[in-house]
């Protein structure tokens, strides 16, 4: 066997073939089918009729759908940006502080990430309920005026759902950033301190550039989870009150399974996929360029 | 190095391109054209037979959603009894929750190995579309053979009746038979009523007076958990029934042309619901309260009345015992008894069924007098001759009586979300807006009218 170099350029692909076949059958093929469906008026039962770009035109002109995409972008703030800010502070503290039980803290911070989203949603529904934990707490400290039905109020429903996302993502972001920060040699911080750089300055000049790849990964993962949020909204508010917490994934589900508009649902799904790609392309381009 | 990489890159690109082209070639035909029974409307082939024993060995695949306690019990008993009566038939049961069935049935019906008998929701988005796609067998010939039209009141059968193209709901051919009935009414706590010195209201104005009395006494008159959106629809159904002509609601609810949401009566009903909220007659934060939390509050003595469906009776009976009572929403003075209600999910025969005669016999068996007794024994609400199965006293007796009164003497109004495929969502959003004070009754009526008129003017 030794010395018999593999002949033919096809050999690598033969090795790749099993994985490619699985990838193709379960990812590429469904994706292409969805793209194809999106050009049809198709109810999932009878033969579809081609309608060209009509489904996409509807995505752009439907005020309800535009609102849903708007809500998804608001959720990005809560799922990605807030956790990034909180995570930076937490990670900096956990890496620098010489506290006992660090693994315990790390586990506790990461825990929300491990719990199934449906469980998280059910728990938070109770917290936000009119006689739930949050309102009880507010009443206990005399802030009765602030109590409200968090998930049932037009003004607070979307931020309330978003904050659940913040709670879930913060752990993941923190652990990622901690991994990045641990890589930065301690001597650099010592040198910076000797030169009189404040902790804030150290963070800006030393830590942030060093952990840019981790930030990019954290943003990518959390933005994807923000844009494709479904279970959280499905369990907590079902899109309500009114339409104040509708999100694109929920609209895909509703169209395909409740309304029987499979073509329109596929179009929404494709637009959502493109949006996720585009946003993450920008994030990663920015992270790469500055390296 | 650079050249090898770019060569590899080129061939990879080619491979991906080839793969994509192959996938596209696979998908070149129109979606839905692959299935065998692509939309030819089914016709009953020849005379139907009620002879099951002579059909030879048959396996009947049944998809149901009878998963909860008493439901599961009754269908298990009846399936066993059917197999015993006809040893040549095997019932293969596939059981899943209502939501799961709703999402999987669409795919299952178009598949190669479709079930023979399915429970399919009456609404236009499900049964209506399946009828239009030619996936359900019209049961009229069987109805004649088995006398189903004598067995069931017309007010019940209309909810599984569609025109052949699925555009008209409530008229045309029969496509399914339900086992159980449902009625939306008012639950109350007997002890709370006694404390307040109130009787069970006989008219709508009695009910309003009772709510006022409860509010004056510092109690929460009405409980509602509306975070899910649909519970308010049931409360509104009762309010609407007291204000609007049943014929009008029938047309609105079934999504048939000729009615309007913007009539003064509908505006009055929407206005009354909002007014109840503004007067503080509901518990605090209805839009943020869970449906289940609301009825549990009634059981905990935190409220006086709860407008909800008969399906809560077993749970409330367990939680409250003799203290729980139920009455149909009382009619307006001089008006007709009318409230939202209907049937459990009907059993239908698919066009994929190889032995439709056996399937029909099975459905007949599930809805026979003996079956109704089994349903009553297992805590369900039999849809046929309900009052005769009523227990002597208690909450279930109240519920049985209310359903029988409404279905035989009054008007059993359709669930409003039957109207159009999107109406459930529209109604939920509108009523949440109305209760939150975000919408005026006029704006709410306009939103509902837009959905209804859009659908009816497009011819379904």
TrEMBL record, chain B:
Residues 32-53 are annotated as: Disordered. Residues 1-30 form the signal peptide. Its main location: other. One of its GO terms (cellular component) is cell envelope. It is found in: Cell envelope. Keywords: Signal, Transport. InterPro entries: Bact_solute-bd_prot1, SBP. Pfam families: SBP_bac_1. Belongs to the bacterial solute-binding protein 1 family. PANTHER family: ARABINOSE-BINDING PROTEIN-RELATED, SN-GLYCEROL-3-PHOSPHATE-BINDING PERIPLASMIC PROTEIN UGPB. This is Extracellular solute-binding protein. The lineage of its organism: Bacteria, Bacillati, Actinomycetota, Actinomycetes, Kineosporiales.
